[in-house]
């Protein structure tokens, strides 16, 4: 028989990024991004500031979640595409897969993207993240074409893909009834038709 353990006092400590994000997003929604401090977020989840900074180096990093891990998966998706798949189709498939979320994750993702796309304080930080996302696409396109990643076509595909994704997110945020992956697919089809 195991001994009876005393109930821990206070809030249990948070040990994952998602719980911190949820608490932070509640504060951002209630009082605004600029007015929310890291101290308030730490207090809300029951951890010290130092613990919080181990998960997120700054408040600006919280809306981006585990973005570096997402980019690793993004690269893996591109690596898994067979060479016989046409280049444009490969990029389109991977961009849609990157933005395909379980239904349970959609409400929090909507808050995340509204913050990223509409909060002036996040714009400079977002530019760095966008550059990293575009680089995954540019590197893949360059590899397929046998060109350097900073050549014109790979860079152009990266920029166009980002523009298409951002425009799709803006439409999705304005129309919550739409499914994000459908908006992305429709946007790509409309762009192709326009260019043709």
TrEMBL record:
> Do you know which Pfam families this protein is assigned to?
TetR_C_14, TetR_N
Please give the DNA-binding region boundaries: 37-56
| InterPro entries on file | DNA-bd_HTH_TetR-type_CS (IPR023772), Homeodomain-like_sf (IPR009057), HTH-type_TetR-like_transc_reg (IPR050109), HTH_TetR (IPR001647), MftR_C (IPR041347), Tscrpt_reg_TetR-type (IPR023851)
Does the keyword Lipid biosynthesis belong to this entry? no
Q: Which SUPFAM superfamilies match?
A: Homeodomain-like
Every copy of the HTH tetR-type domain together lies at 14-74
GO terms assigned for molecular function: DNA-binding transcription factor activity; transcription cis-regulatory region binding
Give the UniProt keywords, A-Z. DNA-binding, Transcription, Transcription regulation
Q: Which NCBIfam families match?
A: mycofact_TetR
Name the UniProt record assigns to this protein: Mycofactocin system transcriptional regulator
- What species is this protein from? Aeromicrobium ginsengisoli
| Taxonomic path | Bacteria, Bacillati, Actinomycetota, Actinomycetes, Propionibacteriales
Q: Which gene encodes it?
A: mftR
